[in-house]
Specification:
The complex is a heterodimer of chains A (347) and B (514).
Chain A (H helix, E strand, L loop, with lengths): L1 H14 L2 H17 L8 H7 L13 E8 L4 E8 L28 E6 L12 H14 L2 E5 L11 H14 L13 E7 L1 H16 L5 E5 L10 H6 L7 H11 L28 E7 L5 H13 L4 E6 L13 H15 L1
Parallel strand pairs in A: 3-4, 3-5, 5-6, 6-7, 7-8
Antiparallel strand pairs in A: 1-2, 2-4
Helix pairs in contact in A: 5-6
Chain B lengths: L13 H5 L9 H15 L3 H9 L8 H12 L25 H6 L11 H4 L9 E3 H5 L1 H15 L3 H16 L3 H18 L11 H14 L2 H16 L5 E6 L8 H9 L7 E8 L8 H16 L3 E7 L18 E7 L11 H11 L4 E7 L8 H20 L17 H20 L12 H10 L2 E3 L4 H15 L4 E6 L2 E6 L2 E11 L1
Parallel strand pairs in B: 2-3, 2-5, 3-4, 5-6
Antiparallel strand pairs in B: 6-10, 7-10, 8-9, 9-10
Helix pairs in contact in B: 2-4, 8-9, 8-10, 8-16, 9-10, 10-16, 10-17, 11-17, 12-13, 12-19, 13-14, 16-17
């Protein structure tokens, strides 16, 4: 098998910049070591290897952050905000003085994105460097607030823990007086996530719709969906661009309740056990699909499912993108994505 | 702070640095090659992955050496040459990574913005804040305290007086950790405003030791400090027959029973263990160090470790002369300092003098545990802000150490309310010192790892990296003693940090001479 790995390594090298190849391959290598064949996970080594970043109320490139912990649940959210434009570099009103007494604005609408980081439900945290960096970029882009949720991960915490944490985060965000904006004040909430985070965003949106909690839009960045069936993209792209089907299978086994298969509705949204979303007040969705992601046929099936349920959905198909293209601003897909997100939250 | 950009950071790839990886631009192609090699080696062989999973990893930020160590680890097993020929035909140069083929697929349409946080932050050290939900309601109190500190900074005494009174009133209406921490800070501010400086030294060493012991029982910080330092010392002592620990932070000697027990259980038997303990003299002139040494000797007797103890009384570590210490031939030396180094910063030249003395002791290893905070900046307001958030986080973590009524959930440790109160007093005194004192009296001059690193490296020390084994055991220790309630161990630049949630609070580092 060493031979085919060489070929596959070369495939990926041709389509991504060197930095991206190194970054994603490094993760692939590390994750390979962390997953055990018996379904357990080397969590201590995972946390040791993960590069983390503390929050920082000193604005960096115009964005500052701080963490809030709910003592009852130990759930942590990292909040990102834009520093006021007239920040005097000599004395920083932003540093150490948190603006938690006033709304974001009483005149303008300020978007608040609740972000669920990826990692196949198993890896990374809100304070992982790759996600802290991404959220900072997102915050500056939308000129709003990003709330990154540190949800509980599998295999220690299987379905539905991540969804419950997402739901709690949504309720929490809606109840913060300091996240209100607009002339008729309310919190203007969007849900977003990459990979498993996209999957979480979908399920939280469903629950929100069922409970009458408003979500203005969903942004799903190559979301993680699947099913028992093997789609053409899974067969064609298996092992070619950083990911193997067997890896995906491992993560589903680690996340889904024991004994369940991939047609479980958490995984296979519009599959045999899926719910009907017709008539449900579901938010508009922006679904981003990377053309070199083996999961794409499931993501495209998700888009079709939303269309058939007469929900508003826009598909952004990036033909030559691999997973993780948005971690580094060194490719055109990154900028295309940023433009799309910006217009999605301002329209 | 210029400490963010060391000389060794020159030539480091910026894009990866932001994501936590230190790779020299000139090493990029080599790193890619190593990854490719390892991919080939691992292939679909789960067995090799398992081996890598069980082995010890160090300093994952340094991708090149991390990959190299794995290659070396697996090399004897797999008969594949280390450097493989580049099959791809795509040529990556170190500096300019976009070649012709890529340029056709990927015309860079926009230039990436330089985004290295370390340089954009300018002259301000980062300020990590972890708020507990209850503090949201206390945000007015925090603002009032900060405004008061600002008034003090501006020498506006009238405004400061008004605000400190306001803060005091607001504090009373708060609950829990917020109230306690705010009260200590308000009191310290008041002392500074009214020039009622606490006398120096604030308390007798005996009382301070007592407070520290309660702090030891209440929360895992000191246990973590001792545990991780001992891990590094044990590794440095591996295979050595005669060992000598010089402890700058003797106090009640709480660190040493565990090390002695570990040495006793060593395969091949324990070494002869000598301990030199250094501490300040007590008011009543009793030789308290001898008492501590005596207790340790009794333990050594029970566990069959040959043991010798010597105590040294010194007002300051800077008074120490290596000649006084009876350094013997054939002995391997470890120097240990837990929460002592920062006090030396109150006297110019003291750190340099002590490090110079340490070098003369020719230690195999120097273990240092310090608070991970910058409480020694030149600007009062900045010190105030940093310490307010630091101690708020510390107090929050104490709050979750049980309600004092009995057994903590998830753990086997009982934290009494007395322990908790004494711990708060212990921390309160530090707060008072940071805020109300100046000059030689201000001894709580905490510095961050990067600041200590710069200092140690400039006089000839280099880091000894703490690995994933120490990390794993420290994590397990936390789970035992704290129920894992928010405490987290983090690896950073070869050192281990213990923090509460996402905020590192103390750092253990290890050093050796170049």
């Amino acid at each position: 098998m060493a031979g085919s790995n060489e070929i596959n390594a070369n495939e990926a090298k041709k389509v991504v910049p060197l930095h991206t190849w190194i970054l994603i391959s490094n993760f692939k290598l590390a994750y390979n070591i962390l997953r055990r064949p018996d379904g357990t996970f080397n969590r201590e080594l995972a946390e040791f290897l993960d590069r983390k970043v503390a929050a920082n109320t000193v604005p960096v490139d115009g964005v500052y952050s701080f963490d809030i912990v709910d003592r009852a649940t130990s759930l942590l959210n990292r909040i990102y905000r834009c520093a006021p434009p007239d920040t005097d570099s000599g004395r920083q009103p932003g540093a150490g003085i948190l603006e938690l007494e006033n709304p974001l604005s009483t005149t303008e609408i300020v978007p608040v994105i609740i972000f669920f980081h990826g990692g196949s439900f198993t890896h990374s945290s809100a304070n992982s460097a790759i996600y802290d960096t991404f959220c900072r970029r997102l915050t500056a882009l939308i000129n709003g607030v990003v709330v990154s949720v540190n949800y509980r991960r599998s295999p220690e915490h299987r379905y539905p823990c991540a969804y419950e944490d997402g739901w709690e985060a949504l309720k929490w965000v809606h109840s913060r007086s300091w996240l209100l904006s607009g002339k008729n004040p309310k919190v203007h909430v969007y849900l977003a996530g990459d990979s498993s985070g996209g999957n979480i965003a979908h399920h939280v949106a469903v629950r929100a719709a069922e409970s009458g909690v408003e979500v203005l839009g969903n942004i799903l960045l190559h979301p993680l969906f699947g099913g028992e069936e093997r789609k053409e993209s899974e067969n064609k792209l298996d092992g070619k661009y950083f990911v193997r089907v067997q890896d995906r299978d491992w993560y589903w086994r680690a996340f889904l309740p024991e004994g369940e298969d991939r047609d479980h509705p958490a995984c296979n949204i519009f599959g045999p056990h899926g719910i009907d979303l017709k008539g449900v007040k579901f938010p508009k969705s922006l679904v981003v699909v990377a053309g070199l992601d083996l999961v794409q046929d499931w993501q495209l099936a998700y888009v079709r499912g939303l269309e058939e349920a007469e929900q508003q959905v826009k598909l952004l198909f990036l033909k030559k993108a691999t997973i993780g293209f948005y971690f580094l601003p060194n490719n055109e897909h990154f900028y295309t994505l940023m433009d799309e997100i910006k217009s999605f939250v301002t329209s | 702070m210029s400490d963010q950009f060391h000389e060794q950071d020159a030539g480091v790839d910026e894009l990866l640095a932001v994501l936590g990886y230190k790779v020299k631009s000139s090493d990029m192609a080599d790193v890619a090659q190593k990854i490719e090699h390892l991919e080939g080696v691992f292939g679909n062989d789960d067995g090799l992955s398992q081996i890598a999973s069980d082995s010890v990893h160090h300093n994952p930020s340094d991708l090149s050496s991390w990959l190299e160590s794995m290659i070396c680890e697996l090399n004897p097993i797999v008969p594949v040459p280390v450097s493989q020929p580049f099959v791809s035909g795509v040529n990556y140069t170190g500096v300019d990574c976009v070649d012709d083929l890529q340029a056709m697929i990927y015309p860079p349409t926009k230039k990436p913005k330089p985004s290295s946080p370390s340089t954009s932050a300018g002259s301000h050290t980062p300020n990590p804040i972890v708020l507990v939900d209850s503090q949201e309601n206390g945000i007015r109190l925090v603002h009032t305290l900060m405004a008061c500190a600002d008034a003090v900074q501006q020498d506006d005494v009238k405004r400061a007086e008004t605000l400190v009174k306001q803060a005091g009133l607001l504090a009373v209406s708060q609950a829990g950790a917020m109230r306690k921490v705010a009260t200590y800070f308000a009191e310290a501010l008041a002392r500074r405003i009214y020039r009622l400086y606490p006398k120096s030294p604030q308390d007798s060493p005996a009382f301070r030791d007592l407070l520290q012991m309660h702090f030891y029982e209440t929360c895992p910080y000191l246990k973590f400090a001792h545990f991780t330092a001992n891990q590094a010392i044990l590794e440095a002592f591996a295979g050595k027959k005669k060992v000598h620990v010089i402890d700058f932070s003797m106090k009640q000697g709480m660190q040493w029973p565990a090390l002695m027990q570990a040495l006793a259980l060593r395969p091949g038997g324990p070494p002869t263990f000598r301990l030199t303990g250094i501490g300040p003299p007590l008011d009543d002139n009793t030789d308290h160090l001898q008492e501590v040494g005596w207790k340790l000797a009794q333990l050594a007797d029970r566990i069959l470790v040959e043991f010798e103890f010597r105590g040294f009384l010194a007002e300051s570590l800077a008074d120490l002369e290596p000649g006084m210490l009876d350094l013997r031939e054939g002995e391997v030396v470890a120097v240990n300092s837990v929460f002592e180094m920062h006090e030396l910063l109150a006297r110019p030249g003291a750190v340099e003098k002590v490090l110079s003395a340490v070098k003369e002791m020719k230690p195999e290893i120097l273990t240092v545990v310090e608070q991970e905070a910058n409480h020694n900046g030149p600007v009062f307001l900045e010190r105030f802000t940093e310490s307010l958030h630091y101690y708020s986080t510390l107090f929050d973590s104490l709050e979750s150490s049980g309600d004092g009524s009995g057994v903590m959930e998830g753990g086997g440790v009982t934290v009494s309310s007395q322990d908790k109160i004494m711990s708060e007093v212990y921390l309160g005194k530090q707060i008072c010192n940071v805020v109300a004192c100046e000059g030689v009296d201000r001894v709580e001059r905490h510095q961050t790892l990067s600041q200590w690193k710069a200092q140690f490296e400039s006089v000839g020390f280099q880091p000894v990296h703490l690995g994933s084994n120490a990390y794993k055991q420290a994590s397990m220790l936390l789970a035992l003693f704290a129920g894992g309630d928010g405490y987290r161990v983090e690896e950073n630049d070869g050192c281990l940090m213990l923090g509460w949630h996402t905020r590192p609070l103390i750092t253990t580092s290890a050093w050796k001479l170049r």
